[in-house]
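Bit of a strange request maybe. I'm writing a small parser for structure token strings and I need a real example to test against, not something I typed by hand. Could someone generate the tokens for this chain?
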Amino acid sequence: MSGSSARFGNRAAPGGALRAFFRSWTGDASEAESVEDNLIFGMQLARTILGLAAAVWLVAAYPLSGGGQKFILGKLLELAFSCGILAVGSIVGIAAFLIASTPDRRRDFAGRLRRPVSAALLLAAGPLGIWLSVETLKGNLISDKDLKDFFSGLGLPEIICFVLSFFALAIGWLAALAVLLGSSVYTLLATYFCVFTCFMARDVHQLLPALISPLLVWSLFAFQLFNGPDVAAPPEVLYTFMLGGPLSVTALSVWEVRRLRVHHAITLRRALGH
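Reply from user aminoacidic:
Good idea to test on real output. This should exercise your parser:
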């Protein structure tokens, strides 16, 4: 994982279509303080590719600790944990910016909050769709009896009520199944997007993703220590791999902050209006 500082621009990057969808609902951020640095993007892309290659090599070279199903569930849990950590980190980071900035800057930052808030709400739409579809499939929202009572209330013959309720139930079940599948895919992609963009924290200020990314990777490191390794690899290989991600993302974040300061005059002090 490259950390949340990965960029999703018009370049060919994973999640580009989902980014366009999120942007259509949240609006584009002001580009007044935003710069596109190709070297920063290239370093982030290189770290992402190397991280993915290392993860694939580790899984291919050593047997899984608990089987394929446990591995997949563990990765889904890790993604959900990442999303939770980033949600908290983004809230804390944005709140710190608002508190520490001057009144003029505070109003400016507050005006940009609709994008991170909208991203969180759009993410929440996925689990909500899953819950509604599951409850519908279980018959908890509407049952065969409810449909029969509805059609009976229209004064229709019993046989007609039975046929109509059967077809209505079948159509509703198929629709709920389609919503369940669509919501599951959407939730996975939306979670991936929110993790990689720090809930669009960059739209509040360009420094925020670089400042929040180390929180994510070190929290994931602690989570992996607590949760146990995914593969049965020697300790020296396992801990080298586990530490490689946090150390590389932290180093990249420090370098990114320095490059933004040296080459683009983007500093934390200037960001806060001091």
